[in-house]
């Protein structure tokens, strides 16, 4: 069992925001996009009265709260909500908001912005939407970094998606810094602490196991990266599993050692479910690898921190 694993502070905060909004304001609470990329979590919130939509125009006129997902949104989304007098709660992870602030700061300083990330990912869409079209160029690979032509090599800055492979991102940054020595770096590492910690834990465990399971959803960037990290670290039989009932048992015939971890949006309940499924089929002994404690906690929005009027 890799440690740390599972929920990070940003995911925990986002789920709390939806749950507290339901407690305080009652159902429905609308949520724009999956609050986090995990079907089990989303389905649980639906059962409590959350209604998930992809765009604000799917929400009928009402006083019901609207929650923006942990991944962040383009600036046009809160602008659209204000135009409709919607009451909204922003569950954007503070570490994603930090990237938005950094991109805005560098843009205001006259810099052309490079965003290292994956095209189409909802977090990347949100970050691109912080600035006017064309202000940010998306770079996905080392090859993209080699081919990039800036308007002015002396006025460049980069930011990154928070859930990338640490090693892949480092390789891209190395190219950018070699080609453009004057490029402005983020004030603090953009890849979030939870992504980094989980990848480091997998690197420790992967070389010593015959197979590895990453509990997480295929839409979850940080979970998919954990599979890649495991494979590169010496465990070719590494795979993503959403739930115990999705396990391909043929992959585990005859193995003696298995590593298990979970993406930052996967609840511990699903990890326990996978362990129980193995316990029903094999004689197992569970041990933990890594004792790193994560003490990061993010504040809730002000609206949910104050007591409602009596």
Give a topology summary:
Layout: H1 9-25, E1 29-32, H2 39-48, E2 50-53, E3 66-68, H3 76-83, E4 88-90, H4 94-108, E5 112-116, H5 122-128, E6 136-139, H6 142-147, E7 156-160, H7 166-179, H8 193-205, E8 211-215, H9 221-232, E9 238-241, E10 258-262, H10 268-281, H11 302-305
Proportion of residues in β-strands: 5-15%
Rg is 21 Å
- Count the E strands: 10
Main β-sheet description:
4 strands, parallel
Q: Mean of residue pLDDT?
A: 95
Q: Which CATH architecture of the largest domain would you pick?
A: 3-Layer(aba) Sandwich
Number of domains: 3
Structural class: alpha/beta
What is the H/E string? HEHEEHEHEHEHEHHEHEEHH
Could you give me the name of the CATH homologous superfamily of the largest domain? 4-hydroxy-3-methylbut-2-enyl diphosphate reductase, catalytic domain
Level of helix content?
A: 25-40%
Shape: flat
List low-confidence stretches.
Answer: none
Q: Alpha-carbon distance between the termini?
A: 47 Å
Strand arrangement across the biggest beta sheet = 2-1-3-4
Q: Total number of helical segments?
A: 11
What is the CATH C level class of the largest domain, in words? Alpha Beta
CATH fold call of the largest domain: Cobalt-precorrin-4 Transmethylase, domain 1
